[in-house]
Amino acid sequence: GAAKCWGSNFSGQLGDSTTTRRSTPVDVITLNHNVTRLIAGGSHTCALLNSGAVKCWGSNGNGQLGIGVSSTRITPIDVVGLSSGIAMINAAGTASCAVTSGGGVKCWGENSSGQLGDGTTLNRPSPVDVIGINDVRKAVTSGSHSCALTNSGSVLCWGANYYGQLGDGTTTGHLQPAVVSGLNSGVIDIAVNYYHSCALLSSGTVQCWGYNGNGQVGDNSTLNRLTPVAVYGLSGVQAI
């Protein structure tokens, strides 16, 4: 259950109390046991402990560490209000999110596109509740948009939507969750990246939507997709 990190460290994102780049793994200070999940954002890192607590470290200019202030930390520090009861975490860019054991979602950090889902575009240096969802088993963020998978198998997304990455048939951003078109049941996993999103269905097929200039939606085209389309030729998929 110990945490080790390596690579770029200009903001202390390796958590070894330095800003020295490391080409081999180093111990994260104070996290030598009880870590159950480790997530790396743009230049910050967060850990989920088996107690349900969350700690983060690294860059914090947008409040992505969730500690109530925007100062950088080069060793792990407790996220405000998340000392227990957290089931999973996710981070990307300058935003972070957590799913509570009760199925709620809390996010913090940059919110310029509404990616925190609290109905505003204000950056949040400590966790805020995502509006209107309380039956979530997984939440993921790209840093500019976020999505959640509910226990009933539906998918909701919010935040930036320049290329249709929210999957609601428009390119209009949302400050709080909106159901992805056609995905109100049957989804078992989700994944997001910069400008596109994907869902794994219980049938073993995958659907994706959003930016497709390089074919990342996988539908044998390079047309942006504002609603989910099937990934060409995939069946029997177990994970995305």
Short recap of the structure:
By secondary structure, this protein is mostly beta strands. Helices cover 0% and strands 43% of the residues. The protein has no helices and 18 strands.
Task: Please characterize this protein's 3D structure.
Strand 7 and strand 8 (95-100) form a beta hairpin. Helices cover 0% and strands 43% of the residues. The model has no long low-confidence stretch (mean pLDDT 97). It is built from no helices and 18 strands. It is an all-beta fold and 240 residues long. The strands form 5 sheets. The protein has a 4-stranded antiparallel sheet, with no helix packed on it.
Write the layout of secondary structure elements.
Elements: E1 4-7, E2 22-27, E3 35-40, E4 44-49, E5 54-58, E6 73-78, E7 86-92, E8 95-100, E9 105-109, E10 124-129, E11 136-141, E12 145-150, E13 155-159, E14 174-179, E15 187-193, E16 196-201, E17 206-210, E18 225-230
Antiparallel strand pairs: 1-2, 3-4, 4-5, 5-6, 7-8, 8-9, 9-10, 11-12, 12-13, 13-14, 15-16, 16-17, 17-18
Question: Poorly predicted ranges (pLDDT <50, ≥5 residues)?
Answer: none
Classification by helices and strands: mainly beta
Q: Please, how many helices?
A: 0
Q: What is the topology, as strand order, of the major beta sheet?
A: 3-4-5-6
How do the helices and strands follow one another from N- to C-terminus?
EEEEEEEEEEEEEEEEEE
Oligomer: single chain
Radius of gyration: 18 Å
Query: Termini, distance in Å?
Result: 25 Å
Helix proportion:
under 10%
The average pLDDT is 97
> How does the major sheet shape up?
4 strands, antiparallel
Number of separate strands? 18
Described by the principal axes of the CA atoms, the overall outline is: globular
Q: Beta fraction of the residues?
A: 35-45%
